[in-house]
Amino acid sequence: MFISKSFIPILKNNPSEAKIKSHQLMLRVGMIKQSSAGIYSWLPLGFKVMKKIEKIVREEQDKIGVQEILMPTIQSSEIWKESGRYEDYGEEMLRIKDRQGREMLYGPTNEELVTDIFRSSIKSYKSLPQLLYHIQWKFRDEVRPRFGIMRCREFYMKDAYSFDISDEEAQFSYNKFFLSYLKTFNRLDLTAIPMAADTGPIGGNLSHEFIILAETGESKIFTDKRIFDLSIEGTKLEKKSLENMRKKFEVYYSVTDEKFNKQEFEKEVIEENRLITKGIEVGHIFYFGDKYSKPMGASVDLPGGKKDFIKMGSYGIGVSRLVGAIIEAKYDEKNEVMKWPISVAPYDVAIIPMINKNDTSALEKANNINLELNKNNIDAIIDDTDENFSSKIKKMNLIGAPYQIIIGKQTDGDLLEFKEVGKDSQKFKLKDIINLITEQKVKN
Ligand code: P5A
């Protein structure tokens, strides 16, 4: 992609309305554009990153056997009246009337709708467990939408739902998601810590938030530092192995502020291991048994002929919020340098030719390199403008491709100036650059 033809509306300075660095960068490089309070359009750069995050989230759901569906954004109020949440949800729910005067709503979450889908088709324990997910826009009329897409009104969520015959089986499902979430965030190069959390309007009494540390985060957390050293390596998708893995995390005190108890914290965690800080909630999982299945009559036949209400859990990842969360974790705002993890980078590499008006050879060289990279499935962005070198570098540092190829004075025949953002540049042959980037992409 040539920068001159791209829709990447870069601003010279940080927009004053943005208070945190992810919001600043997203507006600065034109990843998003506000359409109204808490509602955003996603422009090419932002959309590319979000789609890559979505792909990783999807792959990890598929790996644990969750089946993908797609439910609508607009729901009927009827099912919410059945579950009893229509009134409870309050003003955060956007309520709409259709032309027949029917009460509809823009879904803030899908527990009711998926229970309705389940109860119409699944009648026997023999079809269990069922794990379903979709990736769809949600709307919550937040009182104070802020920080750009971090707390907005319309956002993109992966929400999954589990249906099991018993508490024990439901815990198995819960633990599969627990592991899958840790793997998903690892692939995004984020360290997300599971923390015991409140269940709020979703309900139930077992819940974990997955939080990444960030000073600008909205969740206050109290944790034992040693939880950061735990590994999920070797965990198998089997009951016992998953149970042990979750227990390993639960040994360490780690809670959000709604669950915080000073006495317990000080008793369980010696001073040098205590960490009180802030974080961003990127995922949240819940187990709520028959909270929805009972009022909505979602039951199955049991082996002995009796019937029982299905045991359910729900599991959310903030796909759009993750774009901002990765920026919060990776953006060096002081030096204005962003380095996207290769797994979600909008471009793998930036090609920066120093163009002299009377000599187009650097641009020609950039074109040839780009063609070769494309042949090898490496996505490059070329700065083909005639701006000066330092402003080109500044721009590419904001766009955040993790690698740069600079074509200028240092280019020496076959040897190109190649740089991993944040490190010194080196001289490399194109063939070796291709191998290095390909290796990184495969690893991730
Ligand atoms: C779990 C899936 C639920 O809604 N029902 C279906 C459950 N959980 S949740 O915690 O309320 O939301 C899941 C994730 O969505 C992101 N999120 C948001 N992102 C941007 N703006 C918002 N206003 C917003 N609200 C929630 C979070 O990442 C959250 O963990």
Share of residues in strands = 25-35%
**Averaged pLDDT, please?**
95
Structural class, from secondary structure content?
alpha+beta
The whole-angstrom Rg is 24 Å
Structural domains: how many: 2
**What is the CATH architecture descriptor of the largest domain?**
2-Layer Sandwich
- Uncertain spans: none
Query: Care to count the β-strands?
Result: 21
The major beta sheet can be summarized as: 9 strands, mixed
List keywords for this structure.
444 residues; alpha+beta; BirA Bifunctional Protein, domain 2; Rossmann fold; 2 domains; five-stranded mixed beta sheet; globular; binds '5'-O-(N-(L-prolyl)-sulfamoyl)adenosine
Question: Can you describe what's shown?
Answer:
The protein has 444 residues and is of the alpha+beta class. It folds into 2 domains: 21-330, BirA Bifunctional Protein, domain 2 (2-Layer Sandwich); 349-443, Rossmann fold, CATH 3.40.50.800. The protein has helices at 21-28, 44-63, 77-83, 85-88, 111-121, 167-187, 239-250, 262-268, 319-330, 361-375, 389-399, 430-443, and strands at residues 32-36, 39-42, 67-68, 74-76, 94-97, 103-106, 130-139, 154-164, 192-196, 206-213, 219-224, 254-256, 274-289, 299-301, 307-309, 311-318, 349-353, 380-382, 403-407, 415-420, 425-429. The strands form 5 sheets. Strands 3, 7, 8, 9, 10, 11, 12, 13 and 16 form a 9-stranded mixed beta sheet that branches. Strands 18-17-19-20-21 form a 5-stranded mixed beta sheet, with helices on both faces. Strands 4-6-5 form a 3-stranded antiparallel beta sheet. A hairpin with a 7-residue loop joins strand 19 and strand 20. Helix 1 crosses helix 9, helix 2 crosses helix 6 and helix 6 (167-187) packs across helix 7 (239-250). The longest helix has 21 residues, at 167-187. It is globular and about 85 Å long. The mean pLDDT is 95. The chain binds '5'-O-(N-(L-prolyl)-sulfamoyl)adenosine (P5A). '5'-O-(N-(L-prolyl)-sulfamoyl)adenosine (P5A) binds at residues 109, 140, 142, 151-152, 155, 157, 159, 202, 281-284, 286, 314-316, 318, 321. The site of '5'-O-(N-(L-prolyl)-sulfamoyl)adenosine has 19 residues, from strand 8, strand 13 and strand 16.
